[in-house]
Amino acid sequence: MFLPILMHTFVWESMDMLKELEQLKSDFKTSLSKAATKTHLLELKSVYLGKKGKLSSILKGLKEMGPKERKTLGQKSNEYKREIETALSKKMEALEVFEIDEKLKKTGVDPTYRESLFDLGLMEAGLHPVTLVQREVEDIFLSMGLDILDGPHIEDDYHNFEALNIPADHPARDMQDTFWFKDLKHLLRTHTSTIQIRGMKMQRPPFKFVGPGKVFRSERTDASHEMVFHQLEGMMVDKDLSVANLIYFMKTLLTEVFGKETEVRLRPGFFPFVEPGFELDIRCQVCHGKGCRVCKQSGWVELLPCGMVHPNVLRFGRIDPSVYNGFAFGLGLDRLVMMKYGIDDIRHIHGGDLRFISQFRMY
Ligand code: PHE
Prior knowledge:
Oligomer: single chain
Number of helices: 13
Distance between the termini: 81 Å
Number of domains: 2
Radius of gyration: 33 Å
Shape: elongated
CATH superfamily of the largest domain: Bira Bifunctional Protein, Domain 2
CATH topology of the largest domain: BirA Bifunctional Protein, domain 2
Bound molecules: phenylalanine
């Protein structure tokens, strides 16, 4: 007997509530159009959407509703809530842009200049240590008259192996270490020596260039090994170059980077694209030769594999090895960063921890 009456009340009440919601929406619109500061907007947010705000107090009535009404009204109020939120954040953004514009007008600075953004207090960032060291090394080589070249991360077998005198059946071509694409034709370059091949295509001797970049190896990581790291390739081709020229370049570079003469040692090293090949090691700057996990207790760190360019590689670059010769090196940039700053684990470098990165704030 009571049921029809109750239903009736629900319908009435739900219509009231709908009206209230509509009212809330239009009130909000009016207040939003009047809000002129970010503080106003925050106030509006709490007045309309806060725990004790207008929407919540209307929604209190929902408890008394029948399931059907509760559902429709619930959906409606969610919809309005979202609309209000979006409107608020849009206006917030617009106000922020406006504030920045006003500031810029007052200071008269050009925001396309990095320094100007600092003036405005808008940018507080630094360069990654690898970028810092890479730029430093590039500057040194630029001052020595070398060009800076680039190459792609995704390479083919030809540039990564074949043209570097590493034929398909060569033991140095360890499949395990290479990230191959499914087509088995493309790969993530395992070294920047690919840039030697690309550089020879672009230039006729004599030439000299460096090519920095990321390289990828499917290796087990430890304190001195990462799967993604950075190298800086160097190549110089001319007539009558010798190992002495190579050593001079390497020594000059290291002296500049460390600001003093550093202890190095040269050992024979095997790479199919150089003959003779060397490993240039540097005294471990983390433990100063005492032995630590970076240098695997040896006191020395492999930093600069290098050698005289193999005649076959020159031939691949359409350069006559009976007229020209050259040297090449592959500087380990992350290791150089570690040695320069005394960092004891390569994994810090790309771990993304801001506490680590922010110690290198240089602009
Ligand atoms: N590409 C070699 C490597 O990644 C390093 C290297 C470069 C050696 C140039 C000799 C000459 O291990």
